[in-house]
Amino acid sequence: MAPGSPYTLKWGIMATGGIAETFCKDLLCNPEIRGAHDVRHEIVAVASSSNSKRAEEFLQKIDGAFDAKTYGSYPELVVDPNVDIIYVATPHSHHFQNTMLALEAGKHVLCEKAFTVTTAQARKLVETAKAKNLFLMEAVWTRYFPLSIKIRELITSGEIGTVFRTIGDLSINANTDDAKALTFADSHRMVNPELAGGATLDLGVYPLTWVFQTLYHLQPEQDKEAPTVIASSNKYTTGADDNTAIICSFPGHNSIGIASTTMRADTDPELQFPAVRIQGSGGEIQVFFPTYRPLKYRVVKKNGEAQTFDCPIPGDPARKGWGHGMFWEADECARCLRDGKLESATLPWKESIVIMETMEEALKQGGITYPELITTDVYDPKSPLNTGNQ
Ligand SMILES: NC(=O)C1=CN([C@@H]2O[C@H](COP(=O)(O)OP(=O)(O)OC[C@H]3O[C@@H](n4cnc5c(N)ncnc54)[C@H](OP(=O)(O)O)[C@@H]3O)[C@@H](O)[C@H]2O)C=CC1
Ligand SMILES: O=C1OC[C@@H](O)[C@H](O)[C@H]1O
């Protein structure tokens, strides 16, 4: 890298679904637009598990990276010598095997949320990344928003006093005219147990992100405590959780986190009331929907004084104004790799594991189970989850 020139991170994209498209469009935005002068991104390869034509079509959809290599299988992608980091954008069910596939091939990984299906899988990924000296991060993009960074700073500087409670929700009204059925087909990743579907792993991870980044992350290392968890779920007809409520107690700090999620009601149909409330002795910070992609927060002091702050996401005029907010987590990957870090300080491995433990415990209490193929923590390069036969 020439002195003063931005560090370039070369991405290999594993899967060609909805979020891969959104993420890649963000990678194609000019970093200068968001004030990032020190890093840049290149999409050098894309793989579909079904066929290479799908990967070629993907490049048309993202309208860029036309020189990228296209593959019809994940194993081919991970051995591409030009790829620095793999973005794993498959369903939850596949994250453990797919991330292991990439790590075993010596690639750094950014893996979509939820990190894994079980805590044992998350631990195995971390152990493998550590042993192989590779970077690994769970793609909880919300944490890298300037809004999240600002809120963490406000809490640290004592703007709302000591934080005792965080209440967060991410819910969607996916009802249909049939009282039992949701809008998703039973095979859809949102509700299909074979793809580790369900409200907790897909949506609940975001309110938990707010609980953890306010009540856990900001504690000094020696004071960080895993919460005790009390949870309750209702099952959808497929067996995945339709709705779940999770109470996290941090007794050492006398603080409580409450995370809820349902596919039966919207968090806030009017976009008027807070989706997240971070409550301290001196007031509260309110964050508005979308819980995962927040654009506005409000600080309400104990004396009733209140101020609202808008945090729009910058769009790239050269990309039809596109900008979704996933580029900030991509920049974090680039900076970590440039600086020789294996994990992100904003979402350390230990914290991903504690959050995974919390969700696993909640699902256990809710009686939600997933099949052996997707819960095993034994890596199998020939697993259908890697070879695409599943
Ligand atoms: N950060 C965020 O805001 C969001 C994150 N997500 C996360 O991203 C991941 C993917 O979600 P999303 O992109 O919406 O899902 P999609 O169903 O749109 O795409 C998933 C892709 O995974 C690949 N895949 C491989 N095997 C299977 C299989 N058996 N069934 C279905 N797909 C398979 C397919 O790509 P191919 O055929 O190319 O192999 C498919 O297109 C999930 O972990 C989800 O939680 C999702 C939405 C938003
Ligand atoms: O990560 C996500 O954020 C947005 C939601 O709509 C989506 O289901 C989920 O996967």
UniProtKB/TrEMBL annotation:
Residue span, GFO/IDH/MocA-like oxidoreductase domain: 150-285
Keywords: Oxidoreductase
Gene3D superfamilies listed in its UniProt record: Dihydrodipicolinate Reductase, domain 2, NAD(P)-binding Rossmann-like Domain
InterPro entries per UniProt: Gfo/Idh/MocA-like_OxRdtase_N, Gfo/Idh/MocA_domain, GFO_IDH_MocA-like_dom, NAD(P)-bd_dom_sf
Reactions this protein catalyses: D-xylose + NADP(+) = D-xylono-1,5-lactone + NADPH + H(+)
Residues in Gfo/Idh/MocA-like oxidoreductase N-terminal domain copies: 11-137
UniProt feature coiled coil, ranges: none
Enzyme class at the top of the EC tree: oxidoreductase
UniProt EC number: 1.1.1.179
Family, as annotated: Belongs to the Gfo/Idh/MocA family.
Protein name stated in the entry: D-xylose 1-dehydrogenase (NADP(+), D-xylono-1,5-lactone-forming)
Organism: Trichoderma arundinaceum
